[in-house]
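Researcher: Here's a chain I'd like modeled. Treat it as a single chain, no partners, no ligands.
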Amino acid sequence: MAMFSFRGKPGWESHDAAERAAAVATSTDPALLARLTDLARSDEAAGVRRAAVRRLLDLPLLGDRARNDADPEVRAAAQERYRQLLAGIGEQPLPLADRERVLRSEDSPELLAWMAVNSPEPVLRRMALEQHAKPGLLLDRCQRDPDPAIRLWLLEQISDLAALERIAEATRKSDKRLSHAARERAEMLRFATGDAEALKRRALAIAESLDQLRRERPHDLQPRAATLHAEWEALAARVDPAIVQRVQGYIDTLAAVLAPARELPVIPAQADEPVGLPTIEASAETAVEQAAPATPRDPRPRAAGPGAGGRRPQRGYRARSARRTAPAPRERVASRARSSCGRTGCAPALRGGSRRRADAACTGGGSTLAACSRGDRGIRAARGGG
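Model: Modeled as a single isolated chain. Structure tokens:
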């Protein structure tokens, strides 16, 4: 109750301006709080008005006092209070929807620039930048705004090639994503203006993308290839013929890869032969094709006897009995055929177990074929020996 005088009146009703100003600045009397609007607008003392505007929560009234009060100190105090409340800085932030509505109607360049830099809420900073698109401010906030989304959005608003190059270089280490986006946007601007090097780089980038599609075969290959092809059709007339030929090679290669493969004819399997196994006739034909040319017999005499392994053959009754009771295996017959015939065609046919097919495979003559099928005695007879 220190603000009440000895006559029982509150301090904010005192005739002394300093006493009224002190009471307005500190009193929590509900009656005073209800009269802050009147005191801020119409009190005769500038000190009282200044103390009143510092406690106001009415944004439209603060904006009016910041522009229209006769005292510069009151205008400055009202401006500071207005900025703090509008930006949401302080102990009692106003609802965001109310602040957005007031900021949307604001047209002061100084206030908008201040909001774009100092407001802690991204939505208000972006709104201020939309209403005050000064190139210098956009360039600065594109590099310094704490919100990455706002930085990328601001980059899209910049169309100066030199400014984009400065952003790309300044954020090369601090914000690689923004730096890369700035370089891409600068390249797009060069491409739009018809820069020859930019056109060449874009054409080579299309070729690389086509080759990547050929290697990776993604699920969306067809639409991506169509998009690249359409872009190339619009670009081909603006680049050198050598580049056109190079990119067209990539297009043709991708088209060849995407072309449907030709279907091979299906050969039906024979009903009486298992599928996948070579027949005896096929083996005989293969043997004829692969048969080596006839080679002369070695004129040197044999060191051992005509028997297998250098052993002398049995003679007389025992030899005839062995031939009758134990005929030679097919492998031995084939070996004798090779030593007698001089050609390799009859041996594979004899392994197949058919003399008729051996007739088709052997090229050594009828007497040799007969020797091959009769065994050792027939071989000697065919060679002219006894």
